[in-house]
């Protein structure tokens, strides 16, 4: 099993290093090869996604990704910015299905800013379409209009086939879980969303066991805070999914706890924490490595068919939380504050125990 390791920028290298150490301890036949991506790749080669990095990702069975970005790159022309590497990898590898579980561990229920009784026991999956929508639609740009005023424009676009395949992913995910699928759109205002709703409704006929509902995105944003446990799987487009999955992350108490998987049609995938490169804490040994470790567990499960190993990592993470170890982002009085390395070593010890 060949794993492409792309640590990226900011806290990326710190959290990925702990995770690779953990993966190596599983004693599976895995080969790891690293390559630069994002801002660090730009610094080295002038490109955020060098051809060698893309080729490594293409040749691998799965990709473990840290995070990219940093303020020093914010003024670069858009094609050179670190985030382009992510968009490029998703597009080139056809990673159209983004799985973002939001799970509230019992020990962390009170770490959420939402009342514990609202979030305790939460286990939902947000499925975000990743390669279409307003992030990729053409035309887009900035121009000066007839009145001499600058204007910016983007195009929201979905084709029927794009909606159909993510709808299938949504129904399949729901079949493996609580058999409830909520499709989120803005069909009261957007044509793209009306097509989305029509196609999802058509696909539903192939999954009579799944209970399908539709919800407008503004209501979904509200319901996620009011009663998040009403959901099982949420399927939505790229833009709405981007925002709702970050909102869902806050239900769990920390963005540092949330893994993600981005899969193609054959379950080859890229695995990464949902957070960014956190430049504010980079290099300080305080970043929470658990989201990356849980992403590695998803990699073992979805791309490498190593369910047992995935469970070993998840169990080790739970044990360490039960022991009371916390990185600063999830720290509460009465628990023990640890850094990135100490947390990594504790999970490693729990895995080996
Ligand atoms: P961010 O997710 O990097 O950070 C948001 C906040 O959460 C910060 O206060 C940060 O310290 C904290 N945080 C994030 N991950 C953490 C962890 N593992 N442990 C503890 N605390 C953590 O988002 P941002 O600040 O908006 O963006 C920073 C940079 O990351 C930007 O350049 C942005 O473009 C980029 N970004 C990259 C990705 C990605 O690579 N997938 C995703 C989002 C943002």
Description of the structure:
- The chain is α/β, with parallel strands linked by helices and 353 residues long.
- The protein has two domains: 1-95 and 267-353, Isopropylmalate Dehydrogenase (3-Layer(aba) Sandwich), CATH 3.40.718; 123-251, Isopropylmalate Dehydrogenase.
- It is built from twelve helices and 14 strands.
- It has helices at residues 12-24, 39-45, 51-59, 83-92, 116-119, 160-176, 191-204, 217-226, 238-251, 290-302, 307-322, 340-352; strands at residues 2-8, 31-34, 62-67, 97-103, 123-129, 141-144, 150-153, 180-185, 211-216, 233-236, 259-263, 269-273, 325-326, 336-337.
- The chain has a ten-stranded mixed sheet with strand order 2-1-3-12-11-4-5-10-8-9, sandwiched between helices. Strands 6-7 form a two-stranded antiparallel sheet.
- The longest helix has 17 residues, at 160-176.
- The radius of gyration is 20 Å and the shape is globular.
Number-wise, the strands total 14
Uncertain residue segments: none
* Assigned CATH superfamily of the largest domain: Isopropylmalate Dehydrogenase
**What name does the CATH topology of the largest domain carry?**
Isopropylmalate Dehydrogenase
CATH class of the largest domain: Alpha Beta
Describe the strand arrangement of the main beta sheet, using strand numbers.
2-1-3-12-11-4-5-10-8-9
How many discrete structural domains?
Answer: 2
Tertiary shape? globular
CATH architecture of the largest domain: 3-Layer(aba) Sandwich
Helical region count?
12
Query: What's the N-to-C terminus distance?
Result: 25 Å
Series of secondary-structure elements, N-terminal to C-terminal: EHEHHEHEHEEEHEHEHEHEEHHEEH
The major pleated sheet works out as: 10 strands, mixed
Which molecules are bound in this entry? nicotinamide-adenine-dinucleotide
Radius of gyration: 20 Å
Average pLDDT, to the nearest integer?
A: 95
């Amino acid at each position: 099993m060949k794993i492409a390791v792309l640590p990226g920028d900011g806290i990326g290298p710190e959290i990925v290093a702990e995770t690779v150490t953990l993966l190596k301890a599983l004693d599976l036949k895995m080969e790891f090869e690293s390559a630069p991506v994002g801002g660090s790749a730009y610094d080295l080669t002038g490109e955020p996604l060098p051809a060698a990095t893309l080729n490594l990702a293409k040749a691998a069975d799965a990709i473990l990704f840290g995070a990219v970005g940093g303020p020093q790159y914010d003024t670069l022309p858009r094609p050179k910015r670190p985030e382009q590497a992510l968009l490029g990898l998703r597009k080139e590898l056809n990673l159209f299905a983004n799985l973002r579980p939001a799970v509230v561990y019992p020990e962390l229920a009170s770490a959420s800013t939402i009342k514990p009784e609202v979030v305790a026991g939460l286990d939902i999956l947000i499925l975000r379409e990743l390669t279409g929508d307003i992030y990729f639609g053409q035309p887009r740009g900035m121009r000066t209009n007839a009145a001499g005023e600058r204007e910016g424009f983007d195009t929201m676009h979905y084709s029927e086939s794009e909606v159909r395949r993510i709808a299938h992913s949504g129904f399949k995910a729901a079949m493996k879980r609580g058999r409830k699928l909520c499709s989120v759109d803005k069909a009261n205002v957007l044509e793209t969303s009306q097509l989305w709703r029509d196609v999802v409704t058509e696909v539903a006929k192939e999954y009579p066991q799944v209970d399908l509902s539709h919800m407008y995105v503004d209501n979904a944003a509200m319901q996620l805070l009011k009663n998040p446990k009403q959901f099982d799987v949420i399927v939505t487009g790229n833009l709405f999914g981007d925002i709702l999955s970050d909102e869902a992350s806050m239900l769990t108490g920390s963005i540092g706890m949330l893994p993600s998987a981005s899969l193609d049609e054959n379950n080859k995938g890229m695995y990464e924490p949902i957070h960014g490169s956190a430049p504010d804490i980079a290099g300080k040994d305080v970043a929470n490595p658990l989201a990356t470790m849980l992403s590695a567990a998803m990699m073992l499960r979805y791309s490498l068919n190593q369910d047992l190993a995935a469970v070993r990592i998840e169990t080790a993470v739970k044990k360490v939380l039960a022991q009371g170890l916390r990185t600063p982002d999830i720290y509460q009085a009465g628990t023990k504050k640890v850094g990135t390395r100490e947390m990594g070593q504790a999970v490693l010890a729990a895995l080996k125990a």
